């Protein structure tokens, strides 16, 4: 039997009209009452009727933006402020506001997305990641709610609008660059293997290594967080090996910074001892020592395109799925100079 406002009111110990005002986020309702009512809604599994509310409010003029992990961790990586800058610029131009997820873990993010949808807080959602078997993505598909992914969907690619780079090709080019410099022991450092961006960049690396008939020990592939601490962890693993790599393909500039700093601590220099190539062309990549060879994936434009696609989809539910591939450019800098002669 469906849960009603009266059921929520009974559990929360308030009048049904108070529940309605809490749903509408009426500022006159005390915070204690809001917390009590929302807890009752959650415990009972009650969600406001989206269709009924849409009759009153045709559009929230807001976009939901979902991070791949907690907002606190994600915003430590300059990728996210930069893509939010692109999203915000396009949203402002089209008279939309932003609603950014603040969940501390995957379950909290999932519940927050449910609240955005069922509470009619946003007209559509941008997922700033693509993950294998993602419950948020599946929920949005099930309720037929407009969303766009930054990254390539792992499943149902033809049915989902997404914005991405050709990460496989870019990673293959980076790896070939190191091969052309004379490196034979090349390792890959990426993020979570559940993220499509990691698997695509790993695929490009492997394709180049196999084509060159170079050794590809399993130990040469390391997964860590997209943070400087992730780079440190990767160095500790790779350079404890009997035959450590002389070249690195790293899936993120912030990780690369952690790698360079940790290499210095153990007495190795970049590029004299280890050549480094990276991804994202964050603003810091040209100014660290040495400046990074990195793929400019046009982060700002990824955000702009994702927002424009989402608003088009929100305004027209029949808008067909699109695939937008943003061009990239490799910035060749001092971190990948020629291999030192023995």
Automatic annotation (TrEMBL):
Keyword field contains Transcription: yes
InterPro entries, per database record: HTH_LacI, LacI/GalR-like_sensor, Lambda_DNA-bd_dom_sf, Peripla_BP_I
Residue ranges of domain HTH lacI-type in the record: 3-57
Keyword Disulfide bond: no
Keywords: DNA-binding, Transcription, Transcription regulation
Coiled coil: none
GO molecular function: DNA-binding transcription factor activity; transcription cis-regulatory region binding
PANTHER family: HTH-TYPE TRANSCRIPTIONAL REGULATOR GALS, LACI-RELATED TRANSCRIPTIONAL REPRESSOR
Name assigned to this protein: LacI family transcriptional regulator
């Amino acid at each position: 039997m469906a849960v009603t406002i009266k059921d929520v009111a009974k559990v929360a110990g308030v009048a049904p009209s108070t529940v309605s005002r809490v749903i509408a986020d009426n500022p006159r309702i005390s915070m204690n009452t809001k917390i009590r009512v929302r807890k009752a809604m959650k415990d009972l599994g009650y969600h406001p009727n989206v269709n009924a509310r849409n009759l009153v409010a045709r559009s929230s003029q807001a976009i939901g933006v979902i991070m791949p992990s907690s907002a606190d961790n994600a915003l430590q990586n300059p990728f996210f402020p930069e893509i939010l800058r692109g999203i915000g610029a396009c949203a402002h131009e089209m008279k939309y506001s932003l609603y950014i997820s603040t969940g501390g873990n995957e379950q909290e993010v999932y519940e927050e997305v449910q609240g955005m949808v069922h509470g009619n807080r946003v007209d559509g959602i941008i997922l700033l990641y693509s993950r294998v078997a993602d419950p948020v993505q599946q929920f949005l598909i099930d309720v037929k709610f407009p969303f766009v992914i930054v990254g390539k969907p792992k499943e149902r690619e033809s049915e989902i609008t997404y914005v991405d780079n050709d990460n496989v090709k870019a990673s293959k080019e980076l790896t070939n660059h190191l091969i052309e410099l004379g490196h034979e022991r090349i390792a890959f450092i990426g993020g979570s293997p559940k993220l499509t961006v990691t698997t695509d960049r790993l695929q490009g690396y492997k394709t180049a290594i196999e084509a060159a008939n170079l050794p590809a020990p399993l130990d040469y592939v390391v997964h860590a967080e997209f943070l400087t601490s992730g780079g440190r962890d990767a160095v500790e693993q790779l350079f404890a090996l009997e035959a450590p790599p002389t070249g690195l393909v790293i899936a993120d500039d912030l990780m690369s910074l952690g790698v360079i700093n940790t290499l210095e601590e153990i007495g190795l220099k970049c590029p004299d001892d280890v050549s480094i190539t990276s991804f994202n062309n964050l603003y810091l990549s040209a100014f660290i020592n040495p400046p990074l060879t990195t793929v400019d994936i046009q982060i700002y434009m990824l955000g702009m395109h994702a927002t424009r696609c989402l608003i088009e989809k929100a305004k027209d539910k029949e808008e067909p799925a699109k695939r937008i591939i943003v061009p990239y450019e490799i910035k060749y800098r001092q971190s990948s100079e020629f291999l030192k002669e023995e």
